[in-house]
Amino acid sequence: MATRDAEPTGLREVAPTPDGWRQLERTTRPTLVQLPSVPAHITRDTLRDICRLLGLDPSNVRDIRLGINEMTATLYLSSPDGHKIRYGEDPAISVVTIPIH
């Protein structure tokens, strides 16, 4: 796991919360923090698989953002015959928000 120094005004643990989170407050000295594990990279195949698992055609996806309560996807728009549409110099897009239950 990666570690790094916090901002010059560090953080100090006050008390754990009932749901297991740690409550922190600012201090005047730096604090060492540990970042959660994250992969160094993901492959394009993995990204395409994620799109498919979400029910999206990977070729239509410009951007995906996952939140706790919703997913927002920016999708390229196509004509009925499947050709991508341009809007001026840029591709035509639509942003859709899908709730997570």
Low-confidence stretches: none
- Report mean pLDDT, rounded to a whole number: 85
Secondary-structure-based class equals: mainly beta
- How far apart are the termini? 31 Å
- Whole-number tally of structural domains: 2
Portion in beta strands: 35-45%
The coarse silhouette is elongated
Helix run count? 1
Strand order in the largest sheet = 5-6-9
What kind of sheet is the major sheet?
A: 3 strands, antiparallel
In short:
With 101 residues, the protein is mainly beta. Helix content is 10%, strand content 41%.
Explain this structure.
- The structure is a single chain.
- By secondary structure, the chain is mainly β.
- The chain has 2 domains: 3-34, no CATH class; 44-99, no CATH class.
- 10% of the residues lie in helices and 41% in strands.
- It has 1 helix and 9 strands.
- Strands 5-6-9 form a 3-stranded antiparallel sheet, with no helix packed on it. It has a two-stranded antiparallel ribbon with strand order 1-4.
- The longest helix is centred in the middle third of the chain and has 10 residues, at 44-53.
- The protein is elongated and about 60 Å long.
- The model has no long low-confidence stretch (mean pLDDT 85).
